[in-house]
Amino acid sequence: MRLRAALTQLAGFSLACGFSCSIWTPAAPPENLAVAAVAADGAALGPGAVEWVQARFLRYQSRLAPFEVREVAETIVAEADRLGLELELVLAVIHTESGFHNFARSAVGALGLMQIMPETGEMLAQELNIDWQGPGTLFDPVVNVRMGTHYLAYLHKKYGSWDLALAAYNWGPQRIDRRLRAGAPLPARYVTQVTAHLQSPRLH
User: Fold this and answer.
1) 73: which of 1, 54, 86, 154 fits an S-S bond (Cβ 3.0–4.6 Å)?
2) Per the residue annotation, which of 79, 97, 122, 127 is the catalytic one?
């Protein structure tokens, strides 16, 4: 699969390296192979995409009712298509962040399917005209997916690179910007984890 290979090459290591390879240092701005892969594969989701996403959720204990799984699957497909994101990349981020568990809560306070921090969620709610009712809003799976995909697309537009966008999604853009300015090593573990969860829907 082109996207999987592209992310692996971008990160500068193979999956066999494992999670011990936690940082990488870019010698120069790389050719962003992942962007080319997304541009080539991202839009044509094809018939059956919603059902494929549903099947992915049903493999795990998402704690969502069947009708909620359907609604979330429809939202993921619609947002991926609207934002030009590859469907399998969105699912890989969800898998990495929460294991498809809707009520996941991290040690630092990130919430929901795409593990959004409440401060970020409040900002995104204003931008997307979503009614913000406090951190619990992030346990609405449709809202969480809308925010997470929007944020992921924003980070990709900001950095023009999926390796940096994914690192910033996990670490926060301010921390990544400081490392870039300092020429410091960049985190690679998260990219490894996302890459490991990529799976082609084979729908087009």
Assistant:
1) 54
2) 97
